[in-house]
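Quick board copy: two proteins, each given as sequence then tokens.
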Amino acid sequence: MPERPRSDWGPFSLAGRNALITGGAMGIGYQIATRFLEAGARVMIGDISPRLADVAARLGSDSVKTVQLDVTDPESCEAAVQRCVDELGSLDILVNNAGIYPASAVLDMSPEFYDRVMNINLRGLVFMSKAAGIQMVRQGTGGKMVNLASITSVHPSGLGVTAYSTSKGGVLMFTKSFALEMAPHGVNINALAPGGVKTETSQGPREGVSNEVMEKAVAAFTQRVALGRRAEPDDIAKVAVFLASPAADYMTGAYIPVDGGYLLT
């Protein structure tokens, strides 16, 4: 099916909206940026990855700006928001996508491992949201935040990902709590929860897991997916467009699984 032109996105249009996407240099975040651009948004991509250097060229759009962003540093979060405002004119949409997915059994887990996962996946999301929320309140025109949670927010998906699952459970509760706080300001905050997604990171070796164990885990996971396959990044990106668009104006604090029916089984 051919892609819709930007003028034909109807209630899903992001025309005239400025978005900041964390962790957008690759994977799900990159595909979200691609779809946001198609829907008419201007996009600021924040990332700590070296791949940030050529992301605007890869996307091939003058509507893309980039900023070095370390979500574990609240000052970096504040600077990214200010850069978005300075270069694009406002911050209307925040996508909290930055995250890591290493593995460790709890009995083998170091405090440093746990803190790194929580600092990026949860603490970073909280203070990125705070910085964006302050700006959205200042603007007085509302806004949208899309938080990348996970099916592990509500159901453990395998051994070795307890720290990750704990962080994503926190993302879900933060989403609900902050949605209440920001509702009077017209800011909608929702959690998008992927299941297994085929990205550059998930296709390769993962920290703390051998290739053999990873392949078996992926095969076992996929067998439980009702639709019979893992997601492509675009399966997630299209739902992100919906949550960022006027089509989702009456949704806030929601948890939206995009898992091919994994949780059903």
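And the next:
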Amino acid sequence: MLVIMDAAAETGLQLNQAKCEIIMDDFTLISASSTFSQFIRTKKDEMLLLGAPVIKDKAQDTAIRQKIEELDRAVQRLSLLRPHDAVSLLKNSLAMPKLLYLLRTPDCSGNRLLDEFDTKLQTGLSKVLNVDLNGDQWLQASLPVRNGGLGIRSAQTLAPSAFLASAASTLTLQQSILPDSISLLEDPSVTYVETKWSSLSGSILPAREEQHVQKEWDKPVTENHQALIMSRAVHATDKARLLAAGSPHSGDWLHAPPIASVSLRLSDEAVRVAVVYRLGCKACEPHSCLCGKAVGARGLHGLSCRRSGPRHQHHHYMNDILCSAVKRAQIPAVKEPTSLLQQDGKRPDGSTLLPWARGKPMAWDVTVPDTYAESHIARQPNTELCPSHIIFVPVAVETAGTWGQSAIELVQEGDRQTHN
């Protein structure tokens, strides 16, 4: 410091002592005439470096406590917004993204305040969505969307993966800075967190060349928790729900930005129902349907009730969207063509008027089977529906969000032709 002060005239750099810190435990050693007398005095357990606590003590607790307070304030404000907007902000900005830097810098994995953060997050999510979440439902909600969750990550679950990935990515830099007598020693904090991670994942450590990637640490943990939730599913309905939640594209609505001008914002009740069906929460009070059948607390009967108006509306909406997408690819199409089939007069939901592929027109038929119906049987394409000179594509999307492979391929092909 004295060297810097002496070189001030030559370098033009003036040291502002009022902004400088001295870190030590006993400040009585600093006299009034000392060079450090004007420095900010910070104890070791309160030490911060680039905004991150260095020692796992008071400073870390203070930093996490501040994040809890920020989350509480954010939840109170999010409750004033539409649920779709609130969930999107919580998932992508105001929950784990706000905490991730803190999880990656010091070792926070054993801090009891992370449990308080998760509890606040669970309570806030319930408030925003108007959904009651129990232990397993919150565990599923905290999984990534690809694993059947809502992508609202748990701090306790993510902390070991975040720290270990950060430690591995900076290991080479640490070794280049520190002397060999220190850099070659095993870091006890890394060893401790690896043990915590192993208990969460039930897996061996990732390959050394992949340890700098947080996803490689996080993936075994989330898959282990996903398997744990599946093992606790007693009823066939819950197993079907979990399999559907983890299927490709069933959670795409959670990634879509809630932009009302392009009809991407879901209504409040649509978001609540989508979350309820995905997590297996209580949807309504048990009652009797107009058709005479009993409706349970999960409200699944409405998905297959023959007197359910929205069920038929959704089928027509899907067919309208599909027909519009085909036309957008510059291929004329019609809905329910009457002259396509000469044998039995059956009509598919739509067909193209020009060749779709291999010089043949394409016909499609939309079906929305109920994932939870007791009589649900996997429907196979009817090879006799269309003659050989027509390409027939069954478009099956279950009520729980699972897409049939042919439906996925059709949408991808339509997107490719639209952008060509």
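Board note added afterward: Confidence is low (pLDDT under 50) at residues 377-384.
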